[in-house]
Amino acid sequence: MSDASQSDYASTPFKFIVDGNPYYIHAHLVSRYSNPLDRMINGQMAEAQKGFAVLEEVDEGTFERFIEWAYKGYYTVANFELEASSPPPPFPCSEEECQKPEWIEDPPADALPAAELTVEPISAMEPPTDWDLGSFKKGKRRNKTKTRQELKESFIHHEHTVRREMISIPHTRANQGVNEDYTEVFLSHARLYVFAEKYDIQSLKTLALEELHNTLAIYTLYRRRTGDIVALLRYVYANTGVGEDLRTLLRDYIGYEMSVMMKDEEFKVLMVEDGGPLLSDFMEMVAKRID
Fold it and tell me: What is the pLDDT averaged over residues 183-206?
């Protein structure tokens, strides 16, 4: 919950211009959360003298979520898009898959024959520990499957610090089918993280990271929805630096979904185009699966 005070609301609203549109937010509220934005409002910068600031590298949706968070303590994620029909698979399909009617949904990407499901269900009450991702023993497929499950459990059980303190934060929605495009859902969290990093708003940065994690943890990766993840990876690796927590989050997610992601030609191309960091992170997770 936001801890905005009466003095915040009594302060003069400051004008920000985003995508050509004006937004007004109480000056004290902005100054309390962000030192860089405070300097625009109260410092010697040209923005303080003019009484407004133009933010060039932020979109309206991201700035509106920042304002919502500043006043409420949480933000509303972007909506998913519902496709009229399923797009063709981005990678070669079997004769059976290619002939399957579009209205029949793909099974979840991690669906395995019942005989191979050897890991007990995860307890929702089990406390998170650390990021120990387990080890892999060469040999039987059973070990490999279990290691993938260990990677997934470690990802799911990552501890939240900011989100758990939010009382009225909206419930995270899980995707329901292959026709739901979650690209904008993912990107709305990632863009807010990048915005918070740029303007040194640490609590918002952490919340955006935890919200994206919470979404990915319950996301069903259908084979024809890998493009949503590729779009997220492309944005994150183009707008964050080496060692950023957001990259680490996606590295760990790809670590247990690599079997389906490697069937996506766009993902392979992105690893080459990225110039090294994404490929390096991917190979780090491959090593955890085969070491």
Answer: 97
